[in-house]
Design a protein that fits this description.
Blueprint (H helix, E strand, L loop, with lengths): L3 H12 L6 H17 L1 H12 L3 H27 L2 E3 L9 E8 L2 E5 L7 H12 L3 E5 L5 H14 L5 E3 L4 H11 L4 E5 L2 H13 L4 E4 L5 E4 L5 H12 L12 E5 L3 H16 L15 H10 L4 E4 L3 E2 L4 E2 L2 E4 L6 H4 L6 E7 L2 H9 L6 E5 L3 H10 L4 E4 L20 E2 L4 H7 L1 E8 L17 H7 L2
Parallel strand pairs: 3-4, 3-6, 4-5, 6-7, 8-9, 8-15, 9-14, 13-14, 15-16
Antiparallel strand pairs: 1-2, 2-18, 7-17, 10-13, 11-12
The structure holds nicotinamide-adenine-dinucleotide (NAD).
Nicotinamide-adenine-dinucleotide binds next to helix 7 and helix 8.
């Protein structure tokens, strides 16, 4: 736990204005990029230790995403920082109106364990680009990765600029948030802890971004390309052994295509991970025993159609397909966050929407269909954070799209320019010349109503 003097030193450093300059920000982004590349192998090793991720998976979902964000920020920073001019309404003419992008100050970034590198460092890129100081709190459950991140951060940044704080989140975070007023808290993790963080922030009126969990439905319509659907669903559902915030949580498939989809999913799983995923280079492990036990319990909530093998010693849970799940059981009330995929048939859209409505505001929503009309109807009917048509989860890797949930799945958005915006205040400034000063704007107002109605409309 940092002592309050360390946080005050960060405040002083921010107040010095050093972090605001373009030259400073760009240099920090470039230094961070160099350091990440220099530690590429260490990160592969660490992420293998924590989650048994392959190098290739690490590049696609962790380091590569960070490098892509850094490249974009380095390329676009000057443009992002520019003040913009906007229109001025009739009432205020001939004033001019501008929006300045101002850093927020000292921000706190809290990360989870499932993509421990990317989900801590990507928000940091936005914070640096926007000219802030930041406290980084990684998850305590992906220790190997946390150790490398600590090395990187300490190598590159002084502690009064970027402070890396370890330890039990339940102790360290309240201690910091109750004793220091951060200018923003960016939290990624479970909804349960998100509520705790939100309450602490509210006490001091600290703005927050909450990137929470969710139960993301995946709808497969009668007219979907089933082979493609199965490949794309299996790919992201079982990536990182299902421990992905935007993984398809459960499938709602039109009854007429259910059996065909199940068979195609089985084939896809075997094509990707072989007949024994325990030996697969491409298949990960569960982070710890607590999560392992939680996921294994879901196997009782329906019929295992495929998979279901587990090994607590290696924290292995086989890619598993489930049928006849009990809609009232935990498996359909909680985010699964593991390699267990319920497959539920539906006849009408209304039936499917009722199931989706049990878990409001999913973080993501996926639809497989070849009909533009169905696409429109589904997109209009479900309130979700972000999603894909004829794909699953990949929207998250496009940094030109904002990423975030809504309501129960979170508040605020980031990635690319949206990260810069999240960590910047848009300061609105109107500049009024002194050569024009009409009497209409000053009392007495009596008799001016008609004129006001003409000007303000
Ligand atoms: P978690 O909520 O257990 O932990 C997240 C962070 O909160 C950790 O750094 C932890 O130290 C800290 N923390 C724990 N208890 C705390 C407390 N009482 N007060 C303050 N901080 C505390 O989440 P997790 O298990 O690491 O991550 C899994 C969850 O995160 C899933 O629900 C998943 O969907 C969600 N998630 C969301 C996104 C997203 O982008 N929306 C991304 C990844 C994970």
């Amino acid at each position: 736990m940092p002592d309050i003097n360390q946080l005050s030193a960060m405040r002083n450093y921010f107040n010095s204005g050093a972090t605001k300059l373009y030259s400073f920000r760009i240099e920090q982004l470039k230094k961070l990029k160099q350091a990440v590349l220099a530690h590429e192998q260490d990160l592969y090793d660490a992420l293998y230790t924590d989650l048994k991720k392959s190098k290739e998976e690490v590049w696609v979902t962790e380091t590569g995403m960070v490098i892509a964000e850094l490249n974009q920020a380095i390329q676009q920073l000057r443009q992002w920082m520019k003040a913009t001019t906007t229109r001025t309404n009739l009432l205020n003419l001939p004033s001019s109106s501008h929006i300045l992008k101002e850093p927020l100050g000292v921000v706190l970034i809290i990360g989870p364990w499932n993509y421990p590198f990317q989900l801590l460092i990507n928000p940091l890129i936005g914070a640096l680009a926007a000219g802030n100081c930041a406290v980084l709190k990684p998850s305590e459950f992906a220790l190997a990765t946390a150790t490398i991140m600590k090395t990187i951060i300490k190598e590159v940044f002084p502690e009064n600029y970027i402070l890396y704080v370890e330890g039990d989140g339940a102790a360290v975070i309240p201690e910091m948030m109750n004793n220091f007023s951060f200018d923003h808290v960016f939290y990624t993790g479970s909804s349960a802890v998100g509520k705790i963080v939100y309450k602490m922030a509210a006490e001091r009126l600290v703005p927050v971004t909450l990137e929470l969990g969710g139960k993301s439905p995946c709808v497969v319509e009668q007219d979907a390309n089933i082979i493609i659907a199965a490949k794309r669903i299996a790919m992201t559902k079982f990536s990182n052994a299902g421990q992905m915030c935007v993984a398809p949580d459960y499938i709602l498939v039109h009854h007429s295509k259910k059996n065909e989809l199940i068979e195609a999913l089985k084939r896809s799983i075997e094509n990707f991970f072989g007949t024994d995923a325990a030996d697969s280079y491409n298949y990960g492990k569960i982070i710890n025993q607590k999560q392992f036990n939680r996921i294994v319990n879901y196997l009782q909530d329906g019929t295992v159609l495929y998979g279901g093998k587990t090994n607590i010693d290696t924290l292995y849970i086989e890619p598993t397909l489930m049928d006849t799940v009990n809609i009232n059981a935990a498996i359909m009330k909680e985010e699964i966050f593991g390699p267990v995929l319920p497959i539920i048939g539906f006849e009408t859209m209304e039936e499917a929407l009722k199931i989706i409505a049990i878990n409001k505001n999913p973080l993501a929503f996926y639809l497989f269909t070849s009909s533009k009309t169905k696409e429109k109807v589904w997109l209009d009917s479900v309130a979700f954070g972000g999603g894909c048509i004829n794909n699953a989860s990949w929207h998250l890797t496009n940094h030109h799209l904002p990423f975030g949930g809504r309501g129960f799945s979170g508040t605020g958005q980031y990635h690319g320019k949206f990260s810069f915006d999240t960590f910047s205040h848009k300061k609105a400034v109107m500049k009024t010349p002194v050569w024009f000063d009409p009497a209409i704007k000053y009392p007495p107002f009596k008799g001016k109503l008609k004129l006001f109605k003409w000007v303000i409309r």
